[in-house]
Recover the amino acids of this structure.
């Protein structure tokens, strides 16, 4: 795999992509939430994903090493499914900064995958995550009036409702590059490691 970049470093992360159908459902759900929360910064539906590990700024020459390190995981772990449901916030509802929807379903398989990714990347000196992994899809970022947004979420009862959006198949690990544009940040897939299948590349 060859990367076409004029920069020596790439800002990258590992994640699970959403299907087109799930992306559409997320978009519709965001539109519903706008009736309650009109002044938050909504993430574009096409940019939403389930992050497995954020790698940060990585030298372009190391990206192939990450691919090689993850190939054994793709050959050893079968695909599984998650259900996308349940609103939550970070860090707490009193002054929320992130609004997200969570995951249920085969969480043990997901945690096993995340643990495998951590272990595979440890020899490449990527630091392990200090906080426990909380699977979620970020729906919005709250930059202003945090306490007011928290009150709306509390009084509306939205955080107590199941809000089931459907199934997320976890069939491959994708490495994304973050690219800052005039309209915001876009995420460009560089390659994917399908679970229990051969490696597929997005570039040549």
């Amino acid at each position: 795999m060859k990367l076409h970049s004029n920069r020596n470093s790439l800002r990258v992360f590992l994640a699970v992509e959403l299907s087109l159908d799930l992306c559409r459902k997320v978009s519709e759900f965001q539109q519903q939430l706008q009736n309650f929360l009109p002044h938050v910064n909504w993430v574009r539906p096409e940019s939403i994903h389930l992050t497995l590990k954020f790698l940060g700024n990585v030298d372009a020459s190391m990206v192939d090493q990450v691919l090689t390190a993850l190939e054994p995981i793709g050959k050893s772990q079968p695909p599984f499914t998650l259900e996308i449901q349940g609103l939550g916030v970070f860090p707490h509802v009193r002054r929320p900064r992130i609004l997200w929807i969570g995951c249920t379903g085969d969480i043990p398989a997901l945690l096993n995958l995340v643990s495998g990714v951590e272990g595979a990347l440890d020899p490449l000196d990527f630091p392990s995550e200090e906080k426990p992994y909380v699977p979620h899809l970020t729906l919005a970022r709250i930059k202003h009036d945090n306490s007011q947004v928290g009150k709306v979420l509390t009084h509306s009862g939205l955080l107590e409702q199941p809000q089931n959006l459907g199934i997320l198949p976890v069939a491959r690990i994708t490495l994304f590059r973050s690219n800052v544009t005039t309209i915001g940040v876009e995420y460009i897939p560089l390659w994917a490691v399908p679970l229990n299948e051969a490696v597929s590349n997005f570039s040549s």
Q: What stands out?
A: Confidence is low (pLDDT under 50) at residues 1-6. The first helix runs from residue 20 to 33.
